[in-house]
Amino acid sequence: MSIKTIIARGIYEYFAKRLPLSYKPGGKFAKRIRYYMAKQFIEECGENVNIEKGAAISSKVRIGDNSGIGQNAIVSGKTTIGKNVMMGPDCIIYTRNHSFDNLDTPMISQGFNEEREVFIEDDVWIGGRVIILPGRIIKKGAIIGAGSVVTKDVPEFAIVGGNPAKIIKYRGKDAK
Fold it and tell me: What is the pTM (predicted TM-score) of this model?
């Protein structure tokens, strides 16, 4: 990790992350600062990306053009976010979980499972307070309703909701 990357991460964590929301007074400037700082330390960052106030993002994140990470969201580990993705506030994307298989060892002492990347394809809308579990794939054009817990992959153009998230219907003029 270069000195430039470390400094950019520090500026993001201790300054830019706390700047106003993008739609509040001073928000345009804040949005540009967060974008510039994140671009220095995340794996890949497209054009016109909006990272909102309070978002915690891993350096392993890849995010496409015109996408956003919601206010106070937590995007952990290796996560790929496509183009034109909208994310509401307080979303959490997990890429690993605690190990718990050994009954002779307290769970707290068992460490973590191997990291499993989350893929969010293009043109996805993720409502507020959604939780996405490790290894999930959210396909193109999907909508995830607010408060959902995504435990399985989400098909193209599906609208899902609930805990666990289930398919409600599909988008499109032929959808019923």
Answer: 0.93
Q: Residues 11-20: what's their mean pLDDT?
A: 94
In a domain, 136, yes or no: yes
Q: Give pLDDT tens digits for 98-150.
A: 999 999 999 999 999 999 999 999 999 999 999 999 999 999 999 999 999 99
Q: How far is CA 14 from CA 2, 9, 32, 34, in A?
A: 18, 9, 16, 11
* 174 contacts: CB under 8 Å, gap ≥ 6: none
Cβ neighbours for 64, distance < 8 A, ≥ 6 positions apart: 46, 81, 82, 83, 84, 85, 122
Catalytic residues: 98
Q: Identify the CATH number of the domain in which residue 51 sits.
A: 2.160.10.10
CA-based nearest residue to 114, from 93, 129, 99: 99
